[in-house]
Amino acid sequence: MINPHSNKQSQTNDASPDSEGNLTVRSRPASLLLQEKPDELALNLMDLDLFQFLDSNPVPTFVINKEHVITHWNKATERLLGYSAGMMVSTQKQWQPFYRHKRPVLADVVIAEQVEKSINTFYDKKFKASTLIKGAYEVDDFFPHLGQSGLWLHFTAAPIYNNRAEVIGAIETLEDITERHDAEEALRKAYDDLDMLVKKRTVQLAEANRKLEADLEQRATIEFELIRRNGELTQLNIQLSKAQEQLLQSEKLASIGQLAAGVAHEINNPVGYIFSNFSSLEKYITDLFEILSAYESAEQHISTSAVRLELTEIKNRIELEFLKDDIPELMAQSKEGIARVRKIVQDLKDFSRTDTNHVWQWADLHRGIDSTLNIVNNEIKYKADVIKEYGNIPDVECLPTEINQVIMNLVVNASHAIGEERGKITVRTFREPEFEDEFVIIEVEDNGSGIPKEITSRIFDPFFTTKPIGKGTGLGLSLAYGVIQKHHGRISISSEVGKGSCFRIRLPIKHVEPINPDEESAS
């Protein structure tokens, strides 16, 4: 606000409207006030016409009187807004260069009654009071129709007083801040992008940072270098989906993978003919026992006592009666053992499924889970009991090998979460009533140590692990998450420390090919 009684201003005003309503200030510029001192500089400025002063001012400026009529519109304003003084002076069209509909500009607002209420109405929270001039206000705004692609303008408006401290008009200055605003926005965006990238990379490098905790000074140095190299890591982010597929194959090979398929294939042939030979041998022994019984029946008809005595001695020496009881039992046990070997080999083949070549196919999930549990039985049989709660679910169109891998990772992780006492791992399947035609649910639940809430949001991140250094890769759950994403499903966890965890997989029954071929690889 321009106040003639303020000792902080450098000039004073003496202005009054003429007979036509135009504001004429003969004594000094309306944007500044002179102190009430009769020095030579003040006397010279008193002779200066306001119109000439404003026209020579490079700052776009216009003045309105108490009736909101434009009295001055300088050349800098003409150049900035494209509206000439001839078009604007003596009119109330100060709104026209800025808005499509008539409304007050900042100069109109500062001379209105209840200024605070008016400025809140028209400028919301975009305005601020000037720190230099009492009663003046500043505001920034964007005007898309000005210039080639819109302009950001900074407005400053202050009331003009006469010598009686009465408001007789207002002066408003404009400043094109488009370049500054764009530069600030670019800087802010660059800072936000850099901040987001740094956070993302910091998460990915958390495992590496933990390994460097023993040497804090070295860790700080490495972190500084890694932040500097964030630009280089951007390219690695593009390759993440490809690396994930390779890591999936590596993780599978690390556990069983191609080796299991090869072993199953090599064992299957000899097991097959051993099983066949056992069936034949069992039949032959039955036939031999039948002949032996016939000989024993004929033994009493042998007339020579020496022959009968010799036969009796032989039977006693070889324990014939014991052999007749023990041989069938040995055959049954051996046959059961061969059957178990054949089952393990078949489970290896079902788990590996190397012949599928990643083809989507309809699969019995229960059969795949059974095969997987049989494969990892040696890993968990000494630590936990496995309880299967299978529901009535249909076959699912999926990549069976990858689903088996997910189940294996979850079950093995569950066994690792169980402490000293023998625990329980429950694998259950069911359908939700509201989605029974769309999804099946698989849950792997344990009563182990549980996972703290503060890290449950990170357990699916690559390389994140709660195991000691060197004990885990941090890839198992990340790969499981990627496989379920590829199937357009969802994997989630609920956990409570000291009570255990439950991983839930929601899997679509029918696979839907993505419209964009890149979608599947990206997911």
What does this structure look like?
The structure is a single chain. The chain has 523 residues and is an alpha+beta fold. Helix content is 49%, strand content 17%. The chain is built from 20 helices and 15 strands. Helix 14 (320-352) crosses helix 15 (365-375) and helix 17 packs antiparallel against helix 19. It is rod-shaped and about 160 Å long. The two termini are 60 Å apart. Residues 1-48 and 517-523 have low confidence and may be disordered.
How many strand elements?
15
- Helix amount: 40-55%
Biggest beta-sheet profile: 6 strands, antiparallel
Oligomer: single chain
Query: How many helices?
Result: 20
CATH superfamily of the largest domain: Histidine kinase-like ATPase, C-terminal domain
Q: What is the CATH topology assignment of the largest domain?
A: Heat Shock Protein 90
Q: Which structural class best describes the helix and strand composition?
A: alpha+beta
